[in-house]
Design goal:
The structure is a homodimer. Chain A is an alpha+beta fold. Helix content of chain A is 36%, strand content 21%. The two termini of chain A are 29 Å apart. The interface between A and B is large, with 94 and 93 residues.
């Protein structure tokens, strides 16, 4: 540790009270070990030095953005060093002409978009935690979000990376152009690798022109089937929504809406085509249209109640458990047409297990976020929550889906991942991990 | 070979006259060895058997779609077996509701789109060779094309894969949903791997709703700078073109247009917004607008002269060399803003080297296809062509671009790849190759 103190000065901290702040994340997965210290690098050179030191000393490294991950992706599993990218948060270059921005990993997605909005462009990946999530964390976790139905996830928006691998090598990957075919696609291997292959020190992100305008509706449904069917009908009409989100009845009520299923449906349109689009949506949507919006800003505002899902769930939980509750926001994905069946099975499972359930998600890409909670320290509650997570993971697999859409595997879903993938796929992933991190020092205990 | 005959019957062919048809491709890269035979598998089981046989006997395998590749990606470099996927060309499933199609690798992209058009959906990747290019070839080469500025390349449109690795393992990768986070992203490692990591036996492709409508203009310019600037101006006006293509003066003339730089600019719009968009494009575009189109079909038709670039180049070449010419269609990419400078330097290089040059490309994503030719058997011509390819690759690197945008590395650009990438990146790529193909039997001599 003396080496670290000498190198990083007051940017190395080993005060135990402070350390506890950096050993946990937004999920209920708890650290299974105490970190030895937290380091705040300010340059790529420092990251290189640190990983080489860790490689020599075989010290585990846990890289961290803002720790909003929900699957144990950042929790400390062994005595090691937490690397916080808080101080590497600069925007290096914004190039709207060439559709890219170069940024450091600690930059918050929202800060990036504030800067980009000056140029009429934006970065479309929009996770629920967008206000605090960092670029590096979003890359590590392959983040998605509210605009995923139209714009996809991080893998679609990272053009190039600089990263330090677990061998202490600086790896330059990808390019600054929208297309490049320069050997194997290392960039997308890093996206979603949860800090297990390398530490990203700089990213080239693709940026997009802001939609010209939009139209949106908020509609109530008594049946989730009809709601999902309507989203499919919209797409059949050759309309590709910008967002298609839903809330369950209890959640809708909690955010100030009617106690029914709520659909939030937004479509980007050409300037001047808003009214026509609204008319068409009214013709397709069979739910009770309660609100309409015209223009991009107004359409995005209409989505605000949906963004309150997290606070609503906290409120629902607190009403039952006071401040003693632990919230578990889960993440599965199924083909869109299987969404009603998935919801039926998830509800049935929660009822059978007698655990609380709150529902919301992204209809446009089949991504469901079943949420439950239990009292802190309630071991039986924790056990049942884990069993529930396993159960809904199996439901997703059974319906041709996946155990995670955008939260990743972390410590929480390693067993589920083994159920979804073949043993062969797992073997190849382990071999890839060994290429980048032969000593297993990077975020050990995650994914595999 | 007796094993192969027994297993594949008349779907194993070793007649030398026939073999020569399967040992070359659309590029001028020549086979440096004769294949031992061609195999036409009809099932995944047969592909598995074949690769396991090749692994045991250490026999090289060269997989092939329709051999339209342009960088030596499919040429035979050692005595080995060519695997043609011609007979694995089925559409397994089209699921417009869930936005995917499951297909076999030998299916032609155009056939896929004919089928998809019945459902009002399409597969957006649209390489120049779309009429003959296969799904498997497009995956292997990470194909792009005319709609790349809006829709990206193959890496953005492959959701899941089944493939047989060089160890003879069946690997299932990815998912059927628009998002999934199930471990490392093996799918995109395979996209663009040019048959060096495994043989794809089935692909799950993402499909998109067809644009509702479109508007397009064809405009002439005396200066390429102004043409490129106008595309940038269009994007600054928050218009994200569906296509933005150009032809050089000689090529424009050859396809029946004026002898000036031609811009083909199409924008997808909402139904009813076509006229307004045309008006806006007219306001932005400073070139001489010679043609306008309204509606998706008409807008795509306006692009037809651009699609004739290949035949135009063949005609230009034949006028100089008769039927003795060899055409070399090159592929570099630079940031869009650097396109005029790239063209200036490429033209200057061709003039200095006194070699013919024809120019066209994708303005929307900075992808240039400089084309040259020489007489078959003219060793000095071939040498100069190779020097030219190296020269324009260096120009691309010097302007912050890449030595290939969508044609890949193959045998042709291995040295250039080493100039673009760091030695560290090359080392990691070699290590990845070893994971999937430790004996080096899959498409040897390519990429690395």
């Amino acid at each position: 540790m003396r080496d670290l103190k000498r190198k990083f000065g007051d940017r190395f901290i080993d005060d135990p009270a402070f350390l506890s702040l950096y050993s946990r994340e937004a999920s209920f997965e708890e650290a299974s070990a105490k970190p030895l210290g937290v380091v705040f690098p300010t340059s790529e050179e420092e990251v290189l030095w640190l990983v080489r030191w860790a490689y020599e000393t075989e010290t585990p490294i846990f890289s961290q953005g803002s720790a909003t991950s929900l699957s144990g992706n950042t929790v400390v599993t062994r005595p090691g060093i937490v690397v916080s990218f808080e101080r590497m948060n600069k925007i290096v270059e914004v190039n709207p002409t060439d559709s890219y921005a170069v940024v450091q990993p600690g930059l918050r997605l929202e800060e990036l978009n504030v800067e980009l909005s000056r140029y009429g462009v934006f970065f479309p990946v929009d996770p629920g935690s967008v206000r605090s999530a960092t670029v590096g964390g979003a890359i590590a976790n392959g983040a998605g979000g509210m605009r995923g139905a139209k714009y996809g996830t991080m893998r679609d928006w990272v053009l190039g990376l600089r990263a330090v691998t677990g061998r202490g090598d600086l790896l330059e990957m990808g390019c600054r152009t929208l297309k490049c075919r320069n050997g194997y696609d290392l960039v997308r291997l890093f996206v979603g690798s949860e800090g297990t292959l390398g530490l990203v020190t700089e990213a080239v992100l693709r940026i997009a022109p802001m939609p010209e305008s939009a139209a949106a509706v908020l509609a109530y449904y008594d049946s989730l089937e009809t709601l999902v069917e309507d989203v499919v009908r919209v797409r059949s009409a050759r309309i590709w929504p910008l967002f298609a989100e839903f809330l369950g009845p209890a959640e809708s009520k909690e955010v100030g809406l009617e106690e029914r299923y709520t659909l939030f449906l937004g479509v980007d349109v050409n300037r001047g085509a808003e009214r026509d689009m609204l008319g068409r949506l009214r013709g397709i949507v069979r739910g009770a249209v309660a609100e309409e919006a015209v223009g991009l800003d107004r359409s995005m505002e209409l989505l605000e109640p949906r963004r309150k899902l997290f606070s609503a769930q906290v409120a629902l939980m607190q009403r039952q458990l006071g401040s003693e509750g632990l919230l578990i926001i889960e993440d599965i994905v199924v083909p869109v047409s299987k969404l009603p069946e998935a919801v039926r099975r998830v509800v049935e499972l929660a009822n059978r297990m007698e655990i609380p359930l709150s529902l919301g998600g992204h209809v446009g890409d089949g991504n469901l976020h079943p949420t439950t909670w239990f009292r802190k320290g309630d071991l039986e509650g924790a056990r049942r929550a884990k069993a529930f997570i396993e159960g809904i993971g199996k439901i997703a697999i059974g319906l041709g889906g996946s155990v995670s859409a955008e939260h990743g595997i972390g410590t929480l879903k390693r067993d589920l991942l083994k159920m979804e993938l073949t043993p062969t796929a797992i073997e190849y992933m382990k071999a890839l991990k060994s290429v980048f991190d032969p000593k297993g020092i990077l975020n050990p205990g995650k994914i595999l």
